[in-house]
Amino acid sequence: MRKLLLGCAATAGVLALTVGVSHAAPVYIGFQIAGYDGGVITTVASNTNPGGTVSVTNLAYGNVATAIFQSSVFVTGTPPNPEPDLASTAVTITGEHPGTLNIYVSETNQFPTNFPVFESIFGASASPFPTGASVVESTYVHECSVPNGPCTAADIYQTTTLLSTTTFTANGSVTDIVGKPALPTVPYSTTELYTITLTAPTYTDPLSLSIDLYSAPEPASLALLGLGLGALGMVRRRRT
């Protein structure tokens, strides 16, 4: 399920301006189940050069003692998106042993700071939505540790500053706009986190989830932009 930000094209020129030295923007997918593999976040896929897109398909993760999830995750970062825009979708199917799975999606070496707000678009869909299931979707930003240098491995999957979060227990979508935290002119990383809890086996119906994180103009700016475009149209009509 993909969501598109209205007005993204209008801000592309602004987003193309970066602060500091540009680095490649690697993207990572990490899985975590409590009690499995030491409970650590395991990177199951990454694209470090030049970054941008990465995916896993029908990956089984976990064991009988904890939980077993079979998941497909698709991520689009920079490029083709302008940084720091990050979009991901996950289709998750469980086997015989339900439980809780965390899916982390991170992109590092983000530089733009000249935008006012982050927009997070969350979605969940299944037919039907699994009984007793819950999905928490969240977005985060984290300042990397090396000023004007590439982010390190320690900066991946960090959840330092929460931007937005929502919980789904039924089909739906939520858009949340928050002010950009204070970000100095150092690289930062963005992370999207899915926490999927299933209390009963789900075999055939995929649970389709999505998080799109965008830098965006404030709603008032969008309204002013619309008024400006409208005024230009009126002037053009009068001249013709």
Describe this structure in words.
The chain has 240 residues and is mainly β. It has one domain (14-239). Helix content is 12%, strand content 44%. The protein has two helices and twelve strands, in the order αββββββββββββα. It has helices spanning 8-15, 219-239, and strands at residues 27-32, 42-47, 53-62, 68-76, 86-94, 100-110, 117-125, 134-143, 161-168, 172-179, 188-197, 207-216. Strands 2-1-6-11-8-9 form a six-stranded antiparallel β-sheet, with no helix packed on it. It has a six-stranded antiparallel β-sheet with strand order 3-4-5-12-7-10. A hairpin with a 5-residue loop joins β3 (53-62) and β4 (68-76). The chain is globular. It starts with 7 loop residues before the first helix and ends with a helix.
